[in-house]
Design a protein that fits this description.
Blueprint lengths: L5 E4 L2 E4 L3 H22 L12 E7 L4 H9 L6 H21 L1 H6 L3 E6 L5 E6 L4 H5 L4 E6 L20 H4 L2 H6 L53
Antiparallel strand pairs: 1-2, 3-5, 3-6, 4-5
Helix pairs in contact: 2-3
Protein backbone atom coordinates (compact mmCIF):
# COMPACT_ATOMS: atom_id res chain seq x y z
CA UNK A 1 0.00 0.00 0.00
CA UNK A 2 1.48 3.35 -0.96
CA UNK A 3 1.34 6.68 0.84
CA UNK A 4 -0.34 9.62 -0.82
CA UNK A 5 0.17 13.32 -0.48
CA UNK A 6 3.24 15.16 0.80
CA UNK A 7 4.23 18.27 2.68
CA UNK A 8 7.53 20.15 2.67
CA UNK A 9 9.10 20.38 6.14
CA UNK A 10 12.56 21.95 6.55
CA UNK A 11 13.33 21.59 2.89
CA UNK A 12 12.32 17.90 2.90
CA UNK A 13 9.10 16.33 1.79
CA UNK A 14 7.19 14.20 4.42
CA UNK A 15 4.75 11.63 3.11
CA UNK A 16 1.28 11.50 4.71
CA UNK A 17 -0.24 8.03 5.30
CA UNK A 18 -3.18 6.99 3.21
CA UNK A 19 -6.67 6.80 4.88
CA UNK A 20 -6.59 3.00 4.56
CA UNK A 21 -3.45 2.85 6.72
CA UNK A 22 -5.08 5.00 9.41
CA UNK A 23 -8.19 2.79 9.38
CA UNK A 24 -6.13 -0.38 9.75
CA UNK A 25 -4.21 1.11 12.68
CA UNK A 26 -7.44 2.14 14.42
CA UNK A 27 -8.93 -1.33 13.98
CA UNK A 28 -5.79 -2.94 15.37
CA UNK A 29 -5.91 -0.65 18.42
CA UNK A 30 -9.58 -1.45 19.06
CA UNK A 31 -8.89 -5.16 18.72
CA UNK A 32 -6.05 -4.94 21.25
CA UNK A 33 -8.19 -3.01 23.74
CA UNK A 34 -11.03 -5.52 23.42
CA UNK A 35 -8.65 -8.43 23.99
CA UNK A 36 -7.25 -6.79 27.11
CA UNK A 37 -10.78 -6.14 28.43
CA UNK A 38 -11.86 -9.75 27.85
CA UNK A 39 -8.72 -11.06 29.52
CA UNK A 40 -9.28 -8.87 32.55
CA UNK A 41 -12.88 -10.02 32.89
CA UNK A 42 -12.25 -13.72 32.30
CA UNK A 43 -12.23 -14.50 36.00
CA UNK A 44 -15.11 -12.19 36.90
CA UNK A 45 -18.34 -13.78 38.17
CA UNK A 46 -21.40 -13.91 35.99
CA UNK A 47 -23.38 -11.72 38.39
CA UNK A 48 -23.60 -8.27 36.83
CA UNK A 49 -24.50 -6.29 39.91
CA UNK A 50 -22.64 -6.37 43.23
CA UNK A 51 -25.60 -4.94 45.12
CA UNK A 52 -27.38 -7.42 47.38
CA UNK A 53 -30.87 -7.73 48.82
CA UNK A 54 -31.75 -9.43 52.10
CA UNK A 55 -34.34 -12.20 51.87
CA UNK A 56 -35.67 -15.19 53.80
CA UNK A 57 -35.97 -18.45 51.88
CA UNK A 58 -38.97 -20.43 53.14
CA UNK A 59 -38.58 -24.18 52.61
CA UNK A 60 -41.29 -26.72 51.88
CA UNK A 61 -41.18 -28.76 55.08
CA UNK A 62 -43.05 -27.40 58.12
CA UNK A 63 -41.00 -26.22 61.10
CA UNK A 64 -40.37 -28.56 64.01
CA UNK A 65 -42.82 -26.77 66.34
CA UNK A 66 -45.66 -27.27 63.89
CA UNK A 67 -45.02 -31.00 63.64
CA UNK A 68 -44.70 -31.29 67.41
CA UNK A 69 -47.96 -29.45 68.11
CA UNK A 70 -49.85 -31.47 65.51
CA UNK A 71 -48.77 -34.76 67.06
CA UNK A 72 -49.29 -33.47 70.60
CA UNK A 73 -52.96 -32.91 69.76
CA UNK A 74 -53.38 -36.67 69.59
CA UNK A 75 -54.65 -38.29 72.76
CA UNK A 76 -52.29 -41.27 72.52
CA UNK A 77 -49.06 -39.31 72.01
CA UNK A 78 -46.54 -39.74 74.80
CA UNK A 79 -43.79 -37.33 75.75
CA UNK A 80 -41.16 -39.79 74.56
CA UNK A 81 -42.82 -40.28 71.17
CA UNK A 82 -43.25 -36.53 70.71
CA UNK A 83 -39.57 -35.94 71.45
CA UNK A 84 -38.48 -38.68 69.06
CA UNK A 85 -40.70 -37.36 66.27
CA UNK A 86 -39.52 -33.79 66.80
CA UNK A 87 -35.87 -34.81 66.76
CA UNK A 88 -36.35 -36.86 63.59
CA UNK A 89 -38.10 -33.97 61.84
CA UNK A 90 -35.40 -31.54 62.99
CA UNK A 91 -32.75 -33.79 61.43
CA UNK A 92 -34.71 -33.89 58.16
CA UNK A 93 -35.10 -30.10 58.09
CA UNK A 94 -31.42 -29.62 58.86
CA UNK A 95 -30.43 -32.02 56.05
CA UNK A 96 -32.67 -30.20 53.57
CA UNK A 97 -31.09 -26.87 54.50
CA UNK A 98 -27.58 -28.28 54.23
CA UNK A 99 -28.43 -29.60 50.76
CA UNK A 100 -28.89 -25.99 49.62
CA UNK A 101 -25.41 -24.96 50.77
CA UNK A 102 -23.73 -25.76 47.45
CA UNK A 103 -26.38 -24.10 45.20
CA UNK A 104 -26.38 -21.00 47.39
CA UNK A 105 -22.60 -20.80 47.26
CA UNK A 106 -22.75 -21.07 43.45
CA UNK A 107 -25.10 -18.06 43.45
CA UNK A 108 -22.64 -16.18 45.69
CA UNK A 109 -25.34 -15.88 48.35
CA UNK A 110 -24.22 -14.81 51.81
CA UNK A 111 -26.09 -16.81 54.48
CA UNK A 112 -27.01 -14.74 57.53
CA UNK A 113 -28.71 -17.39 59.69
CA UNK A 114 -30.91 -20.50 59.51
CA UNK A 115 -33.98 -21.46 61.54
CA UNK A 116 -35.66 -24.86 61.90
CA UNK A 117 -37.84 -25.04 65.01
CA UNK A 118 -40.33 -22.18 64.76
CA UNK A 119 -39.77 -21.35 61.08
CA UNK A 120 -38.09 -23.42 58.40
CA UNK A 121 -36.04 -20.89 56.50
CA UNK A 122 -32.66 -19.47 55.56
CA UNK A 123 -31.95 -15.75 55.75
CA UNK A 124 -29.39 -14.57 53.24
CA UNK A 125 -28.15 -11.74 51.06
CA UNK A 126 -28.03 -12.22 47.31
CA UNK A 127 -27.80 -10.23 44.09
CA UNK A 128 -31.29 -9.17 42.95
CA UNK A 129 -30.87 -10.74 39.50
CA UNK A 130 -30.50 -14.13 41.21
CA UNK A 131 -33.90 -14.04 42.97
CA UNK A 132 -35.76 -15.97 40.27
CA UNK A 133 -33.04 -18.62 40.22
CA UNK A 134 -33.18 -18.80 44.00
CA UNK A 135 -36.96 -19.29 44.04
CA UNK A 136 -36.63 -22.14 41.52
CA UNK A 137 -34.35 -24.25 43.72
CA UNK A 138 -35.77 -27.64 44.79
CA UNK A 139 -37.42 -27.53 48.20
CA UNK A 140 -37.98 -23.75 48.17
CA UNK A 141 -41.58 -22.73 48.86
CA UNK A 142 -41.18 -18.95 48.70
CA UNK A 143 -38.68 -16.10 48.94
CA UNK A 144 -39.60 -13.19 51.20
CA UNK A 145 -37.88 -9.83 51.51
CA UNK A 146 -36.23 -9.39 54.90
CA UNK A 147 -37.59 -6.19 56.44
CA UNK A 148 -34.94 -3.87 57.85
CA UNK A 149 -35.32 -2.95 61.51
CA UNK A 150 -34.86 0.76 62.24
CA UNK A 151 -34.66 2.64 65.55
CA UNK A 152 -37.61 4.59 66.86
CA UNK A 153 -38.32 8.05 65.51
CA UNK A 154 -37.26 9.68 68.79
CA UNK A 155 -33.92 7.91 69.04
CA UNK A 156 -31.19 9.67 71.03
CA UNK A 157 -28.86 12.05 69.26
CA UNK A 158 -26.05 9.48 69.29
CA UNK A 159 -28.13 7.18 67.09
CA UNK A 160 -28.69 4.44 69.67
CA UNK A 161 -32.05 2.62 69.40
CA UNK A 162 -34.68 4.07 71.70
CA UNK A 163 -37.01 2.16 74.01
CA UNK A 164 -39.65 4.93 73.95
CA UNK A 165 -41.98 3.01 71.62
CA UNK A 166 -42.28 -0.13 73.74
CA UNK A 167 -42.09 1.40 77.21
CA UNK A 168 -45.59 2.98 77.25
CA UNK A 169 -47.20 -0.20 75.96
CA UNK A 170 -45.95 -2.34 78.84
CA UNK A 171 -46.92 0.28 81.43
CA UNK A 172 -43.36 0.86 82.62
CA UNK A 173 -43.78 4.61 83.07
CA UNK A 174 -46.86 4.18 85.26
CA UNK A 175 -45.00 1.59 87.33
CA UNK A 176 -42.02 3.90 87.78
CA UNK A 177 -44.14 6.89 88.74
CA UNK A 178 -46.27 4.85 91.12
CA UNK A 179 -49.68 6.24 90.11
CA UNK A 180 -50.25 7.88 93.52
CA UNK A 181 -48.37 5.17 95.41
CA UNK A 182 -44.76 4.07 95.70
CA UNK A 183 -43.04 3.66 92.36
CA UNK A 184 -41.33 0.46 91.33
CA UNK A 185 -37.85 1.40 90.16
CA UNK A 186 -36.14 -1.94 90.68
CA UNK A 187 -33.80 -0.54 93.30
CA UNK A 188 -32.34 -3.28 95.49
CA UNK A 189 -33.66 -6.09 93.29
CA UNK A 190 -31.33 -8.65 91.70
CA UNK A 191 -32.49 -10.11 88.41
CA UNK A 192 -31.14 -13.40 87.07
CA UNK A 193 -31.34 -14.16 83.35
CA UNK A 194 -31.55 -17.86 82.55
CA UNK A 195 -31.27 -17.96 78.80
CA UNK A 196 -28.86 -18.66 75.96
CA UNK A 197 -27.28 -15.27 76.63
CA UNK A 198 -27.71 -11.54 76.41
CA UNK A 199 -26.31 -8.86 74.18
CA UNK A 200 -23.47 -7.87 76.48
CA UNK A 201 -22.44 -5.19 73.96
CA UNK A 202 -25.65 -3.24 74.73
CA UNK A 203 -25.20 -0.09 76.79
CA UNK A 204 -27.89 -1.22 79.25
CA UNK A 205 -25.64 -4.15 80.19
CA UNK A 206 -22.45 -2.12 80.49
CA UNK A 207 -21.29 -2.70 76.93
CA UNK A 208 -19.83 -0.15 74.51
CA UNK A 209 -22.97 -0.03 72.35
CA UNK A 210 -21.06 -1.03 69.21
CA UNK A 211 -19.21 -3.98 67.70
CA UNK A 212 -22.22 -6.32 67.37
CA UNK A 213 -21.48 -7.25 63.75
CA UNK A 214 -17.81 -7.92 64.48
CA UNK A 215 -18.44 -9.90 67.67
CA UNK A 216 -17.53 -13.59 67.67
CA UNK A 217 -20.26 -15.35 69.75
CA UNK A 218 -18.01 -18.38 70.24
CA UNK A 219 -15.32 -16.41 72.10
CA UNK A 220 -15.11 -14.50 75.37
CA UNK A 221 -12.82 -11.54 75.59
CA UNK A 222 -12.95 -10.35 71.99
CA UNK A 223 -15.32 -7.49 72.91
CA UNK A 224 -14.28 -4.63 75.20
CA UNK A 225 -15.82 -4.26 78.69
CA UNK A 226 -16.90 -7.89 78.91
CA UNK A 227 -17.28 -9.35 81.41
CA UNK A 228 -18.53 -6.06 82.80
CA UNK A 229 -19.97 -4.84 86.10
CA UNK A 230 -23.47 -5.96 85.11
Amino acid sequence: MRATGSKAVGGQRRLRPAPAILLAAALATLSLLWSLRMAAGAGAPAVASRARVSVVVELDAPPVAEVYSAQAAGETASAASLTTAAQAHLAAVEAAQQALAAPLAAMEARVLYRTQRVYNGIALQIAPERLAELAALPGVRAVHRLAAKTPAQDAPADGAPANATAVPWIGAIAAWQGGGGPGYTGAGITIALIDTGIDYLHRDFGGPGSGYDENDPTRIGDAPNFPGPK
